[in-house]
């Protein structure tokens, strides 16, 4: 039997696309194996190639992980094994991928992989023009779950219910993908398939929660009506899904949310991206006002669903005030979780084009990493959106991409349909570094600050702290100064005692790092559990304050997923509740 080895980056959740491809390989009569790469250590891959002797190796490549993947591809080819590259990076940077592969598969990939498995695909660069009509194979989860038991034993499993998104967000590849395929088309899997897939998981693996990874779940109302009738009866497992706020509007939006509840939905993830309406409209291409955001989120929370908002800091033409406005909007909404990233200007997206056009980015994406949490790689402008907002108001063409620009070392000359419009000034190197530091601090603390009363004001205070005074203890002192006039010193002392009790300690014996900033843990569910975890992992022993914050931010995200968003772990409510 011929063999195909599939390779992807290791993440905390299973590589869903790889699982479906593995099912396709199985159905074609090939033997398949999956290797997931931890921390850029490709040693297990090379060992598997040597011992298992596959007929070909297929890489799923994402931008930010591409340099390391390319080096591995080169080494595999040097071993005499043909290499296929697919995934987002192959779709939008196919020419560079071809330097490191025998086959480059652009687009969805199911149809082209079938041709490869049938020996009817010549080497070279291939684009799947159609492919969206291809049916999903039943994924081969056992391949990954047995090799990586932590994924198999996870109480949360992912499923695709549909593929496709009609919206035009500037930072996303979906609009470009739709253009490449002649327009938007939604591929919706039959309810029969989803039920069968979920039942298959239940038969062999733990399952407390399904995460539907669709860009927009329940877009098709007729499909959703059937799903809401059958899922609770035939599967009976709660689920979390992703939607757009526009789909909560009017009677149909209310009906959609009601059907979610009937089907067993316990929570929703949706994107806000920015608290600044100009940036949402003209830079992020998300055309929704504050009223829609607040009203839509209220509808979700009023139905007893958990809510995760998503936002992006350090986008083109942002500044500290716009980032803090995003935090203020989350303070108003009070979501279960406020997931926050820092912009990566991916080539092939409208956002990438804006960043290049206005001299905000001069890279080739080789300076990006695979995460969304790293320091901004952009140059930023003075005054945030102030000056560009004025230029757009003065010109009949309202799209940044339509304007002509001339980039200088410290400024950008902008022209519209009627000629010269004005000048945008770029931050000098020192000011740019300061802003990038501000956004890192906000990103790490965003989940916590979104729960603190007037958290945007505390956030403003914290980003003002000089680098040489920045520490975990300083965050605690500023939090105490912020909360004392709001809640009173007596209440703050009560919280400290409750946190100590939750940790099984007396207030006097609280470990020094926890005693220095107890309020961080008091605003989070099962805060004592998180505090103990931080201590056990040696987080507060890190040499640099930014390392402490990196680790605390990561652990907080995971903690909130388990104890609040998905509720796969049981724990006490936040002490401040």
TrEMBL record:
Co-factor requirement: [4Fe-4S] cluster
The entry's keywords: Iron, Iron-sulfur, Metal-binding, S-adenosyl-L-methionine
Domain B12-binding: residue ranges: 1-128
Pfam families, per database record: B12-binding, Radical_SAM
Superkingdom of the organism of origin: Bacteria
Domain Radical SAM core per the UniProt entry, residue ranges: 151-386
One term of GO molecular function: catalytic activity
PROSITE patterns, alphabetized: B12_BINDING (PS51332), RADICAL_SAM (PS51918)
PANTHER family in alphabetical order: ANAEROBIC MAGNESIUM-PROTOPORPHYRIN IX MONOMETHYL ESTER CYCLASE-RELATED (PTHR43409), BLL1977 PROTEIN (PTHR43409:SF7)
Protein name, UniProt field: Uncharacterized protein
Species this chain originates from: Candidatus Zambryskibacteria bacterium RIFCSPHIGHO2_02_FULL_43_37
